[in-house]
Structure formats: structure tokens, C-alpha cells
Fold this sequence. Notes:
Elements: H1 3-32, H2 37-53, H3 79-88, E1 92-93, E2 96-97, H4 102-122, H5 129-152, H6 154-159, H7 163-192, H8 196-205, H9 210-228, H10 232-270, H11 278-292, H12 298-308, H13 331-346, H14 352-360, H15 370-385, H16 391-403, H17 411-424
Antiparallel strand pairs: 1-2
Helix pairs in contact: 1-4, 1-5, 1-7, 2-3, 2-4, 3-4, 3-5, 3-9, 4-5, 5-7, 7-8, 7-9, 9-10, 11-12, 11-15, 11-17, 12-14, 12-15, 13-14, 15-16
Amino acid sequence: MNPLPRASLTVAAVHGAALALAGIALGHTLRQGLAEPRTALAFGVLIAVGEAVHRGAPPGDRDHDRERPRAPVPAGPGLGTAGALAYALLGQNAGRPAEHGVLQTVAVVGAALLVGAVPRLMTGHAPARDHLARLVLSVGFVAVCFRPFAASGAWGGRLGEGPAHVLLLLLLLTATAGCDAVLAALLRRARTRRPYAALLRDELRALAGIGSAVRATAALLALGVAVAGPWALPVFCVPLLLTQLSDRRYAAVRTTYGQTITSLARATEIAGHTRRGHARRVAELSRAVGRELGLSGAELTVLEHAALMHDIGQLSLVDPVPDGATAPLPAAEQRRIALLGGAVVRQTGVPSAVAVVVERQADPYREQPLAARIVRAVNAYDDLTGASGGTAAGLDALERLRLRTAHDYQPEVVESLARVLSRGGLTPGRAG
Length: 432
């Protein structure tokens, strides 16, 4: 069986499990009726509204994630996720024991997610299926771990409502987030065929930030409703809502910033200094190699931006380099172009770390930061494959890079590049 059917089976199995769980829960709840319908409705509305206004997929939920540069989007779960987890963790309701069970918890969350998806579908923004499936399974996990003990009184009877109770809620939420990260990495592995360890590391790192705010809000919602009833929901949702709005504004700024860098990167192509699509291909492969070598977050952003702008120094040349290929040039000329590029980058207002990578991309690799080593090797690979492309050209380019690992290219970077190419085929990317 080849990798694509296996990937489809993995995704289908996760989605099928979530759909089956939600279907069974909805059927059971329709037969038995809702316990505490007002509370269920309050949480359902919160979850539906949270999902309706949520924009951008969580870190591990890019259904079409392929190793390509992309503009940043608001990431991470939000109000809907916090409300769903809080409903599963509701031990008391205004001082009385909460009566809903595991299946009703999943049913309310599943129905709310469907309602929340309607506005997105009407505006042409399909909900992220991986996110919906993972949230249903996460809520099921939390409910199974918590609701039977809450219903029997064992949880509250042994721990009371003091700090130990709060601590265990947070530990349960953290364990749930960890399980969700494992599942998210599995889905991304099925879709992209990247190394699972690197994907899992990315997901675990993504648990910080707004993910921490979501878990804290879920605990606060459960504790607040336990004392004041559903009226506590709007009060405790405000901090997370403000966090999400700030996150969205920051993402919008980053999107504009990324578009500016992409436009600058295309200047060399428009001026005829480099082949069409060269900067994009180098950025795409550099990001993939960076992930292979364990980079993530801000490091990958710096790497991608530097790769997009690595040839911008050629705009300062009186005589253009043939086809924009700098790899065959003498070392001194490569360094001169790199320094010119760094000077241009520093005037664009991007972080100095990007300029440093551009400036040092032509240095001996032992003197370079890792990002510069990656950009240099990937740029040379794309230059050496030329416009002809083909598997033979890719293999020949890799062999030429390997022969120069004593001084010019770090062996680990070259081998990581080879692994990335082998997973996607050795045919060099052509301009699209």
C-alpha cells in the first residue's frame, strides 16, 4: 500500500471515530432528553458563537498543509474550545451537582459545532474538519475522565472545591492538550509525510500562548458556573475574547508584513535578475529543511523571509548574473552580492535577524548561523538544477553539493535537503 491511501485511511479513521461518537451521543440524548436544558443551551450558544467567529485553523489542523510559504493566520483554539472543555468539566451548577453525563456532553458540543459551522459555510469559509474531529474526541476524553467521578461525588468529596480541585482540573486539561497534540501531529503526518517527531514537537510548542489562555478560561468557566450558574459565562469569556481579538490583529499585521516581503522578493524576477519562481522555491524548500532540522516558530519565520529575499542584492548589480544563478560565482562575488542584499534588507524594516542570514549566506558554513547554511544549500540546489529540471538534474545537483561539504555546505543540511526531496520526489520545482 502506498503512502497516499494510508494517509487517507488515517484521516478517515479519525474523522469517522469523531462522527461515530457524536452520532451515538446525539441519538442517546434525543431519546433520553436533556438534563438541565438551560445550562446546556447556554454552553451550546457559547460554543456555536465561538466556532462561528473563529478564523484560522489550529496549529495542527491545516487540511492542505504542504511544505510551502504561507501568510500567517490567526492560530489556535478559542471560545468554542474553552466552552466545550468547560462543559465537560462542570462539576456543579450554581451550587448543585451538574446532572449531564458523558454522552450529553458530547451531544451538546457536537450539535453546537454544527450550528457554528453554518455561518462559515454561508460565507464560503468551510470549517476545518480536523479541528472539529479533534475537539469532539478531546471533549469525549475529558468527559470520560471527569463526569463519572463528578456524578458519583467522588471527585468533589475527596478534593473539595479548594486548590487541589483547581490543580487537578488544570492537569486534566493539560493532559487533554497533550493527547490532542499527538492526534494533530498524526493527522499532519498523514497529510504531509513529514517526520512525526518534528511535527509533534511543533504541536507541543504550540500549546503555549493562546492555548494556555484557552485552558485557563475553560477551568475558570467551569469553576464560575459551579458558583454562579450560567450567568458566569459572559463574565469569564471576556479575557479570552480580548486575547483572541489581539491575536487576530497581530495576525493581520503579520499577514500584511508577509505580503510585503513576498512582493519585495519578486522584484528580482520582475527585473529579470532571477528565474521565475526561484525565490518561492528556495523559501519552500528552506522551510521544509528547517523543519527537518528541528527549527520552528520564529526561527522558521526568519528562515522563510531570508530565503525569499536572499537574491535581493542582485538589484544593485550593473551587470545581471546569468539566470540569477549565484552558486557558480567566485566566493568573493557571492559575498559581495550577499552584503548588498543585507544592506537592502536592513532598509525594509524587517528584523535584523533576516538581514544577518542574507548577509552571511555566502560565508563558509562553519561561520554561518543554521538558517544561512540552509538558504545557501537550497539556493545552490535550485541554481544547479537550472531551468531543465528533472530527476537526473536533481540527483546531479545533490551530488555536487555533497562533493563540496568540506567547506561550502554543511553535510547535515545537504542530507536533510535530500530527505525532504525524496519524500516529495527528486524533480526540482518549476515555476508555477
